[in-house]
Design goal:
alpha+beta; C8orf32 fold; Immunoglobulin-like; six-stranded mixed sheet; four-stranded antiparallel sheet; 11 helices; 18 strands; globular
């Protein structure tokens, strides 16, 4: 997966598919403008900040938008703190006493760093969104669970490692990830870069579930029983641009795949917005070289994008799917020879 370092530059029953499109008639410009006008506000008085962000807005979704946007634009993701916490929690995974002591110590230091330096890990983001929403009389929850990115070591993912939010609006629950929406880590300098991703605001649960799995499965907000921890661990890697372009990812449903030479491999996504066929491409790495492949078999039916590709050579391939310059997902394919069949007489 040599491309990963460079890529980083770039409920409930009856509530299925609660997502951003439910509010397509809402103009969020006013909420975003208010959030921007209060940039550099401190966290010394959270109730007062919540009032400043929401008092001029009339709908709950706009109030939540202002809160969410402020957090994403003003809180820096502390990768050093996150890495230290990950190491400690893995070290103490079989030592409940030391794990409890570390968690208590970490919560205190993380909270102080959030208030004093506007830096946080995912728990701090989720906590601040919940608190600002609470003071605006919005019902917002912290959701703890598992999440994976291109540099997640699945073998060490033995305990929940991420937090995000669920927000109740007009009697339905919606999902957001303010941490991932706030920005990215520069792979060269390792410094945080603010880069807001609107695709992680009121995200379709179908695509959210590819890279997020809650401890309490009700927060999947899906009726389908197909989403399990195992299917989550086996699923492909989706990147931030996937949430902007698509509402769902169906196929391939696994990160690692074995196929026969010249067999049809199907890629299937539910579109969020129209895309040009000529923007669709694969970047394939066979371990010796990378090459761009333009797929020939592309169809769009009822906003569902289907791409069929055939590997004409055996080998092992890292496959990165792009829409223009937007990197969407990554898979691996082990391509083997077809088994010859012999007739018997």
């Amino acid at each position: 997966m040599r491309l990963f370092a460079y890529i980083f530059l770039f409920v409930f029953v009856g509530q299925l598919y609660a997502q951003r499109s439910d509010f397509k008639e809402i103009d969020f410009n006013k909420a975003d403008s208010i959030a921007l006008s209060h940039k550099y506000e401190t966290l010394t008085n959270i109730p007062q900040l919540s009032h400043k962000l929401t008092s001029q807005l009339h709908t709950d979704v706009e109030k939540f938008r202002a809160v969410y946007k402020w957090v994403c634009d003003n809180i820096e993701n502390d990768y050093t703190q996150y890495a230290k916490n990950t190491r400690k929690r893995y070290r103490f995974k079989d030592d409940s006493l030391n794990l409890t002591n570390w968690n208590t110590q970490f919560r205190t230091s993380a909270f102080n760093k959030l208030l004093q330096e506007n830096k946080a890990t995912c728990t701090g983001y989720a906590y601040l969104v919940k608190e600002l929403a609470r003071y605006a009389n919005l019902n917002c929850k912290i959701v703890n669970g598992y999440a994976k990115t291109g540099n997640t070591n699945i073998d060490k993912l033995v305990a929940p490692n991420h937090s995000w939010n669920a927000i109740e609006l007009n009697g339905k629950w919606y999902l957001c990830d303010p941490t991932w929406a706030s920005g990215i880590q520069n792979p060269e300098s390792l410094q945080f870069v603010f880069q807001y991703n609107d695709g992680l605001f009121l995200t379709n649960p179908e695509i959210f579930a590819i890279n997020h799995f809650p401890e309490n499965k009700k927060w999947l907000l899906l009726e389908s029983k197909a989403h399990t921890l195992n299917s989550f661990l086996e699923a492909p890697i989706l990147y931030g641009d996937a949430y902007i372009n698509f509402n769902a990812h169906s196929l391939p449903n696994k990160m690692h795949n074995t196929v026969k030479k010249n067999d049809a491999v199907v890629f299937k996504f539910q579109l969020q917005r129209p895309i040009e066929h000529e923007d669709i491409k694969f970047l394939m790495d066979n371990g010796n070289k990378m090459k761009t492949v333009i797929p020939k078999d592309i169809t769009v039916t009822n906003e569902e994008l289907t791409i069929i590709h055939r590997f004409n050579k055996t080998g092992f391939y890292d496959v990165h799917f792009f829409i223009g310059d937007d990197v969407i997902s990554t898979y691996t394919f082990k391509v083997t020879k077809k088994t010859k069949s012999y007739k018997t007489y």
